[in-house]
Amino acid sequence: MNSLKLYGARDLRYEEAEKPRLVDGKDVIVKVKACGICGSDMSRYKKMGAHTPGQVWGHEFAGNVEQVGEEVTSLKVGDRVAGCPALIDEDDYYYRAGQPARADSLSAIGAKEPGGFAEYIKLPEKNFVKVPDDLDFDSASMVEPSTVVLHGYYRTNLTVGDDVVIVGAGGTIGLFAVQWAKIFGAKRVIAVDIDDEKLQIAQELGADYTINSLNEDVLVKVAEYTDGMNADIVVEAAGTPITASTVFGYAKKGGGVVFLGIPYADVAIERFYFEKILRSELTVWGSWSCVSAPFPGKEWSTTIHFMNNKRLNTEKMITHRIPLDKGPKMFERLMERKELIGKVIMYPEK
């Protein structure tokens, strides 16, 4: 079958891979109809390289059920599904405690096990969630990044009437954070990014105000847009050392910051920003993965519901649709950053 395999930093190859086969009675094989490039994929592609050199990569995908094991009861051949990439040992203490996102054994497909950048993928039955017939596969392949955001918001005390600042609002996670904040009932959503074109998309998806941090003072503008109070909730979705070290300055006293982005580098916090945690008595929430109990969690069913009723708009987020064999060149284009590239959806089937 056709696939994309990651061998090392900036070494992604379009190659043949062995088609998966049923081994366990709970196995399900899915024919991948659409798969997406994640921001975390770019970090690994650029800096970290392959977890397992030559492994089929990718963790955002959707498709049709092709085969089911003899013990599978919830799925049948032909069902449309989105795939949860989290792999967890069911004997793990945190999994048994109903906290799968904290499991020591938690890993993701595309690392040790084959991922979704391929024509077919095999996972346990529990890792697939049915999607309605009228939800397109492009959207279904984006259920996973939406669940990452929703899992983070569930960690907070966000409520109707709150003001929310989203840093890194132009990426997939940030744009979902904008939309979910509105669904949760946020009064004012303030999108912060360094790209005016992406900020325009954030505004089209519900952001009330936008701030380009390259040429505007974010501290000043956030205060201006919130009547001098700052935000109830600040979302760090950029995943850079700079943004991770400064987001505390945008929260109101008694407010909170939730971290969704992954810096992949050391974070040094200036005293001014660190003291905001203390002097403003902030709550800081870490958020990891996209799952809860019962696995994979209400993040998945809730996302599918709001995608299906069009409260979550994925179409404005997608800028490129390409065949899978163009994937390596697309990753290089993403590295160059010479053009607006939002969500990229790839299609394994020629």
Mean pLDDT score, rounded?
A: 97
Distance from first to last alpha carbon: 11 Å
Describe the global form: globular
Largest sheet: 7 strands, mixed
Helix count, DSSP H or I runs of 4 or more residues: 11
Low-confidence stretches: none
Quantity of strands, as a count: 18
Provide a concise account of the structure shown.
With 350 residues, this protein is an alpha/beta fold. It is built from 11 helices and 18 strands.
Report on the architecture of this protein.
With 350 residues, the chain is an alpha/beta fold. It folds into 2 domains: 2-142 and 314-347, Medium-chain alcohol dehydrogenases, catalytic domain (Quinone Oxidoreductase, Chain A, domain 1, Alpha-Beta Complex), CATH 3.90.180; 147-286, Rossmann fold (3-Layer(aba) Sandwich), CATH 3.40.50.720. It has helices spanning 39-48, 93-96, 137-140, 143-155, 172-184, 196-204, 218-225, 241-246, 271-279, 298-308, 327-336, and strands at residues 2-8, 11-16, 27-36, 55-56, 60-68, 80-83, 86-87, 107-108, 120-124, 128-130, 163-167, 188-193, 209-212, 231-236, 251-259, 283-286, 318-323, 343-347. The strands form 4 sheets. Strands 3, 5, 6, 9, 10, 17 and 18 form a 7-stranded mixed sheet that branches. The chain has a 6-stranded parallel sheet with strand order 13-12-11-14-15-16, with helices on both faces. The longest helix is centred in the middle third of the chain and has 13 residues, at 143-155. It is globular and about 60 Å long. Keywords: Metal-binding, Oxidoreductase, Zinc. One of its GO terms (molecular function) is zinc ion binding. It comes from Peribacillus loiseleuriae.
